[in-house]
Amino acid sequence: MQLADRAYDSLRYAWKNSNKNSPFAFTNPKTGTRYDYRDKFFHNLCRQAGVPEMRYHALRHHRASELAVGGVSLPQIRDFLGHENAVTTSLYLKSLGYGF
Q: Is 42's pLDDT higher than 90?
């Protein structure tokens, strides 16, 4: 998935300033602990990147849409999203406007 340069730079900054001994991928640079809520973390990244605010889950929706448009099979998208059942993935994609 391609990211805007500012979004990439913000993610790089967050990773660079994260606690590498933590079990969490990103940690709050002020506290060294995990973010209390991922949407708060993502809101801060969006603000730093200068992109419209969106919810963290929008990344899953975006990637699932890209995979569907790219012709990736339903079972592959299911595996990527971690769904146990292809019906769940089909409903998920249908809610995004893609029929499988």
A: no
